């Protein structure tokens, strides 16, 4: 389970990557402590890498299973808001800057979303390798 405050960008991209790389090995969810909807730039930058997240929806923690094998928080705010969120195997904190909070023109904002997308992919691949999970891509 990937958790972030708004469940609009980082956790949505992480969910998309996990589904693309190892959905046959994991049941994947993402949620937010205060969900606001899927960010269109997250959809756009994931599509650049061939991962379609356009059908995903922003969800609250009440809308996903109460417990998961792995819980990965993608921002310090979510980590602090739900410190007791149970993980059967491991809880990880990948505190990444929120690309949706980056000001500027379209290209500056896309650059922030691409950086988050690529860092999430890098961390997820390392996590899957450590877990001995073969990735599809």
What does this 3D model show about the protein?
The mean pLDDT is 91. With 137 residues, the protein is of the alpha/beta class. It is built from four helices and four strands, in the order E-H-E-H-E-H-E-H. It has a single domain (2-130), classed as Rossmann fold (3-Layer(aba) Sandwich), CATH 3.40.50.2300. The protein starts with a strand and ends in a 7-residue tail after the last helix. The chain has a four-stranded parallel sheet with strand order 2-1-3-4.
Task: Give keywords.
single chain, 137 residues, alpha/beta, Rossmann fold, four-stranded parallel β-sheet, 4 helices, globular
Quick structural gist:
By secondary structure, this protein is of the alpha/beta class.
Apparent shape: globular
What is the fold named in CATH at topology level?
A: Rossmann fold
Question: Helix segment count?
Answer: 4
User: What is the number of beta strands?
Assistant: 4
CATH C-level label? Alpha Beta
Instruction: Report low-confidence residues grouped into runs of 5 or more.
Output: none
The total tally of domains equals 1
The amount of beta strand, in percent, is: 5-15%
Q: Going across the major beta sheet, what is the strand order?
A: 2-1-3-4
CATH superfamily, by name, is: Response regulator
The string of secondary-structure elements, in order, is: EHEHEHEH
Distance between the termini: 21 Å
Assign the structural class, choosing from mainly alpha, mainly beta, alpha/beta, alpha+beta, or little secondary structure.
alpha/beta
The whole-angstrom Rg is: 14 Å
State the CATH architecture: 3-Layer(aba) Sandwich
Helix fraction bin: 25-40%
Q: What is the residue-mean pLDDT, rounded to a whole number? A: 91
- Please give the largest β-sheet: 4 strands, parallel
């Amino acid at each position: 389970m990937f958790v972030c405050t708004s469940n609009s960008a980082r956790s949505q991209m992480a969910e998309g990557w996990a589904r693309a790389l190892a959905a046959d090995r994991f049941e994947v969810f993402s949620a937010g402590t205060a969900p606001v909807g899927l960010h269109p730039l997250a959809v756009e930058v994931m599509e650049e890498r061939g991962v379609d997240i356009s059908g995903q929806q922003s969800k609250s923690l009440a809308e996903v299973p109460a417990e998961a094998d792995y819980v990965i928080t993608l921002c310090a705010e979510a980590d602090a808001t739900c410190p007791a969120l149970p993980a059967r195997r491991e809880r990880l904190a990948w505190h990444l800057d929120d690309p949706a909070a980056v000001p500027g023109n379209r290209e500056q904002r896309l650059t922030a979303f691409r950086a988050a997308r690529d860092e999430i992919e890098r961390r997820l691949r390392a996590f899957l390798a450590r877990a001995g999970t073969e990735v599809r891509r």
